[in-house]
């Protein structure tokens, strides 16, 4: 779109012109920073004279203003020192306190004459009669600019919504910035463009002269190099060192930025974050590969991320689960392969305004769409071609569409306050509009039997309708305190879920219209999308707080932690037909596929989980708890196996599987150990008695014939695993409680850690201590473990550190491993001995490089209380943790060689060459870091 109301602004009389520090002040939302940077760069360049730094002095807070307590004072002073105000409009700016305050301040102090407007996204419509921007038709106008009489005439405004990535060297974008710059320069657009062209030609002449000089210098350098052959090798080495240092610096930048993006402390988004993290080790072998693990863990719930050029308003999954359709602000629908994230065919075009809603027909052969152009359209899902003419009848934007279960009808809801029914075969309306809402209809859905329709509205109510007669069923369903943004029926048709601008979800009885229970709370912003899982047991929701949440449909309680990663409002959510995945679409211009189970914890214990262990085959997990029970869990599903194992009368403090996986040993605060049949859950024999205080730790010998235990009575005991009888006398050191014990891999030694801050080695055959205590910790040692080769020992202490020890000499290896901010309660070696795992009362787990002692990636977060116990699976692919928050959690622990492939699987494309230059370095050769993924063009078609 070209500039509107573009007129030449006459320059003020030079004698009368006040002195200003800045030519223009940019008022914008920081979410539009990329576009604003392009505007600023264009204003700097266009009309710039050779030898001058910038053509115009432009104030932009991210570059000219440091954050401090006097923020507004600095901003207002900068505005007072600026000749023009340029306000950049978008949905984010419309809701920005700062942008609204800045424009209001300008109008109050300076009036509208030097006000210029740029539109980055959305619609802006002038209301000439009332001399304002029309609030009904403009979705990005600031409230202050919609007040009647606020502007004497339509201001100059420029629409750059279609010009991403806003490069001033691009012809179309530069032309629009010239429209913007002309009145500031006090020239017509033609004069400014002519001046700019003239200066560019001067610059090229200077550049040719410089190149000629450079060629001359190069010739001299060649001559000098030929004379200095002896130094050539040294120069080459220096260059290679410089390149390695450059590559190391680039890799460090990429990993640090990528991890900051994943943590949400730096903009850029997850797609860019993972691409940068993947690029770092390809550029420099010294790159921190721990960032790869951070990506794997931080986005373990993300299956696929698809980057688009425009905000996504609606998503739907085909009935066979193989395709996804999205509709967005680019006025088009797009089809995607749900497994690969690759586009299927060309965009589906035909609408003349943003697409607000999409839906697949029950047989998957057609797609319906609703648009802000007031129409619906039907599409052939196989060819992408429109079916027939647009469906017309609504007098305002169509915000929601849905097929009936038999696919013969379509229902639509519109900002005209009405619902309409349509014949899906002919496209003709069925009967009169459904009237009853007093404000815009934002969401509609058919019941599973097709006889009822539910709708949600800006009037804060839901309504039920008879789908056959079009009549209202009962009274409005009220309870929300703001707009009802989304509605859905449960698969059995007995319940309805709604999402509202009041930040809550509600469940309703579909027969009575009454609310079921209290509102579902947890979101921090409006709930824009809701959906039931195919089995009706779960609900997913998408919100303006940028998260997707999962809820138990029976209890209304949240399941797991929110799914994070989106950078803007989540407008639409949908379950896959098998219920295994969730698809979301967001205004951050991405579409995501999620594994909703990845963030779920394993629940069942009613008190803290103190001990955890994997079975040797990795298919089961045993846990012990303060609730006095053991539980067995299916590793694949996270579901309990059988009933709790009961018998202990106090806390179950530790659990261990026998090497053959047939038995479980448990230690308890009731001073006993117990053996259990791992298949039946039944106790084997009587409790093992002999300790006189809490039994804190238990382990099987590698051959499964012996058990070792540690106790608060200060002793270590060895037991016959077959008879349950003690072997020999207790191993005593008289140093206080023994907190942890472990057998060496050959079964010949035992290590213990205790209250006195030391470790001790014991001869497992004689019970005699081996050498002196291992000293170095400054507080109690709570956990010990041997490396798989038996040559090292790792310990964790309440002094917040881990230590690695030489098992032969008892000497510490290297410095303490620091990083936890709380006591270290549990440690374990990976089966290959290359990594160490720890759990702490700072509620995190950490992975460490066993060779260097350096942490691998960021801490593993998710637990809400201290981590009591951690364990690796036998194959080293998974980690289990138990916590005082009463839950267990499973974590990915694949080997470092697998991390790049895991991250590439989450992406749908490599960086483009232009992105590589901007994000990585223009001096580093391009690398397609994910070989199986496409390289997008530098200027993708919209």
Task: Describe the protein.
The protein has 942 residues and is α+β, with helices and mostly antiparallel strands. It has 4 domains: 22-194, Toll/interleukin-1 receptor homology (TIR) domain (Rossmann fold), CATH 3.40.50; 245-301 and 913-942, no CATH class; 303-594, YVTN repeat-like/Quinoprotein amine dehydrogenase (Methylamine Dehydrogenase, Chain H), CATH 2.130.10; 733-893, YVTN repeat-like/Quinoprotein amine dehydrogenase (Methylamine Dehydrogenase, Chain H). The strands form 16 sheets. It has a 5-stranded parallel β-sheet, with helices on both faces. The chain has a 4-stranded antiparallel β-sheet with strand order 8-33-32-31, with no helix packed on it. A hairpin with a 4-residue loop joins β21 and β22 (462-466). The longest helix is centred in the N-terminal third of the chain and has 39 residues, at 189-227. The protein is globular, with a radius of gyration of 34 Å.
Write the layout of secondary structure elements.
Blueprint: E1 22-27, H1 33-45, E2 58-59, H2 61-64, H3 71-80, E3 82-89, H4 91-94, H5 97-109, E4 115-119, E5 126-127, E6 132-133, E7 157-159, H6 171-185, H7 189-227, H8 232-263, H9 269-283, H10 290-298, E8 302-307, E9 312-317, E10 323-328, E11 333-337, E12 355-360, E13 366-371, E14 376-380, E15 386-391, E16 398-403, E17 409-414, E18 418-423, E19 429-435, E20 441-446, E21 452-457, E22 462-466, E23 472-477, E24 484-489, E25 495-500, E26 505-509, E27 515-520, E28 527-532, E29 538-543, E30 548-552, E31 570-575, E32 582-586, E33 590-594, E34 609-614, E35 620-625, E36 630-634, E37 652-657, E38 663-668, E39 673-677, E40 683-688, E41 695-700, E42 706-711, E43 715-720, E44 731-732, E45 738-743, E46 749-754, E47 759-763, E48 769-774, E49 781-786, E50 792-797, E51 802-806, E52 824-829, E53 835-840, E54 845-849, E55 855-860, E56 867-872, E57 878-883, E58 888-892, H11 899-906, H12 913-920
Parallel strand pairs: 1-2, 1-3, 3-4, 4-7
Antiparallel strand pairs: 5-6, 8-33, 9-10, 10-11, 12-13, 13-14, 14-15, 16-17, 17-18, 18-19, 20-21, 21-22, 22-23, 24-25, 25-26, 26-27, 28-29, 29-30, 31-32, 32-33, 34-35, 35-36, 37-38, 38-39, 39-40, 41-42, 42-43, 43-44, 45-46, 46-47, 47-48, 49-50, 50-51, 52-53, 53-54, 54-55, 56-57, 57-58
Helix pairs in contact: 3-5, 6-7, 8-9, 8-10, 10-11
